[in-house]
Amino acid sequence: MNKGTVAFLRGLVVFTLLLARPVLVRSADTIIVGVSGPSINMVYSFVARDAGLWQKYGVDARVVLFEAGSLLAQAMLSGDVKISISSGPAAIAARTQGADTIIVAACVNTLPYSIVAAKGITQWAQLRGKKIAISRLGSGTDTAIRLVLKKYGLDAAKDVMIVQLGTQPSRFQALAAGAIDATIISPPLDLAAKKQGYQILVNIAELGIPYPQQVIETTDRFVRENPQTVKNFLKGFIEGVRYAATHKDETHKIITKYLNTADPEIVEATYQSYLQVTDYSAYPNMEGLRNAMEEVAQRVPAVKSKKPEDFVNTRFLKELEKEGFFKQLYK
User: Fold this and answer.
1) Per-residue pLDDT, 304
2) Which of 41, 194, 210, 290 is the one with CA 20 to 30 A from 311?
3) Residue 324 zone, left/alpha/beta (φ > 0; ψ -120 to 50; rest)
4) 64 shares its domain with 22
């Protein structure tokens, strides 16, 4: 890797550690919002925060970054995180196993990743017997890689070795060091990898596989006790999604700040990926939930007795729609 890429990766790692520090002192009215990253999915929360859109609706939100969706799910179960932006499988598994986690909205209903392979690997068949890195077992990257391998005729349990290596920068570094043969990453690291000569086997977003990649999740208890907070949080979040799509220069600055890169090509590629994968309706995709449930059921068999509707509560989205919020926002 060249010096620019190394600096970029180090910046992402440092940023992850800074945001994931324990919260020592906070206001009683502050809600902790967990985000699984670092990757493009950070953009949604930081736009809403930095543009003052949560404040606009009276929500004091502190964003904390977690290196994997499975770790964020644990923080949700502990009660420290009140609302999270993560992948659907973690919520599906947790609720099936007795937690009261519930999906209240979604912003990405497809897979925004790319599969990046070592420079000598150019075909899917060459992955047989090879090591493929994800963040953690049970995370969104785990489910995504299994779905894509299946689509290309490979059995994740028999044909490849899936290893857990944490964050995307860590996985990319392992690929560069030759410790693994492929990994799953999202913008902007897929572009950085391509610029370094690594093979992009597939841009999964172009496959259009329905999947609850980024959902807004809370708990039944928090919904019961703080319905207006949940509703106002969604208003700020959804307005932030629209803001990013209509304020390119401002969003570029946010991407530059939080992904710690000034490379205009990487910033623009990240922004274009955002536009490509964002679902502006904010509704969870039921077919995508079914896809996630099929995969989660291999680890949590009780999921087979559930329906996609068991994992979602669209009450607030319906209320906002009835009140004309979406119509006003997108006029």
Assistant:
1) 96
2) 41
3) left
4) yes
